[in-house]
Amino acid sequence: MTTAPANLLAVRHLLLTHLNVDPDVHRSQDLEADEIGIVADAHHHGGYHCGSDRVVADDYSVVESPRDRSGLTLHASALDVGEFAVRVKGHTHNLISFSNWCVAQCVADAPGTRDLREIIYSPDGRTVRRWDRLGRRSTGDSTHLSHTHFSFFRDSTKADRDQTPLFRRYLTEIGLIASTPQEHAMEQKDKLIEDTGYPNRTVGDVLADLENLRNWLISPVGTAGLLSVPMAGSPAARLLTMAQGWPALVAQVTALSNKDFVDEKAIVSGVLATLTPQAIAAAIPPTVAKQVADELHARLAA
After folding, report:
1. Vertex 145, ends 174 and 87: CA angle to 5°?
2. Could you give the CA distance from residue 7 to residue 76 in angstroms, rounded to a whole number?
3. I want to staple 115 with a disulfide (CB 3.0 to 4.6 A). Which of 70, 76, 82, 156 is the partner?
4. Is residue 36 a contact partner of residue 15, using CB atoms and an 8 Å limit?
């Protein structure tokens, strides 16, 4: 049966710890336990809230990306976050501001977003939009006016990759989690150890790029949801051009290998066209010419 993976349970626990301000009282301002879910109810089939036992034929959460096809397990790979409102240092933060912040992080391809497939949310409480990494859809149903849906590529769930950093950064930015000097020192140490030479580029980001490249190399040319189209003139673009032209090249070589390049009739016709009586006579030595003439005379007399 479909189960909730440990990495998404960790995200759920993190959000409840800091957004359910009064855990002993059920109130609309808090994010309550029943407002943040991972596994769909038993009547629900298809989509990222379902594992392999409850996906449907041509399920978009499986077929549209090799990351989902290779990562399909009994785990659900989605998280719903309900309404809340918290006030920190004179500012109110709620589901709308939280959702807009998360989408902006995804659009900027910020650290911690590479495993997110889609976010279905309301930017204003009146309309529903969808950020889709694969660019397949842009809207959602009206239930997302009161909750925000996060889909994670299934291979990240299967690998149990930590998904808390993005949400922890949000809670830190709004002031619900304080950065301690010790944490700052640890961050500096991690940066020194895992420095990639580029700002905001972690080792995890590089590994994600390598995984995407691997998926691109083993997938059919033109498969959606993989790497962006390479820049013109780049090595990857040239490799892609070669790959696209390979079938035509093979067909041309095969056709040439089956072709007979020697036209015997044309060769004989060409030779005979040059063998005029004068040419033949000029080519025969005088002694041989007399023998030929005598032989021809004898045959004609016979």
Report:
1. 25
2. 11
3. 156
4. yes
DSSP string, 251-267: HHHHHHHT-----HHHH
| Cβ-defined contacts of 161-166 (< 8 Å, 24+) | 161/7, 161/115, 162/7, 162/10, 163/7, 163/8, 163/10, 163/11, 163/112, 163/115, 164/7, 164/10, 164/11, 164/14, 165/111, 165/112, 166/102, 166/105, 166/110, 166/111, 166/112, 166/113, 166/116
DSSP 8-state assignment for residue 159 = T
Confidence at residue 192, expressed as pLDDT on a 0 to 100 scale: 47
The two structure tokens encoding residue 276: 């005029």
- Inter-CA distances, 191 with 85, 165, 202, Å: 34, 15, 8
Distance between CA atoms of 106 and 117, rounded to whole angstroms?
10
Beta bridge partners of 152: 116
- Measured at the CA of 244, the angle between CA 238 and CA 250, to 5 degrees, comes to 115
Q: Quote the pTM value.
A: 0.63
Report d(CA 128, CA 139) in Å as an integer.
6
Residue reference for tokens 């930015």: 173
DSSP-based helix, strand, coil % in the chain, nearest 5: 50, 10, 40
The 8-class DSSP code of residue 33 comes to G
Do residues 140 and 128 make contact, with C-beta atoms less than 8 angstroms apart? yes
Residue (of 76, 78, 75, 81) closest to 16 by Cα position: 81
* DSSP letter (8 states) at residue 10: H
Give pLDDT tens digits for 19-62.
Answer: 998 888 888 889 999 999 999 998 899 999 999 999 999 999 99
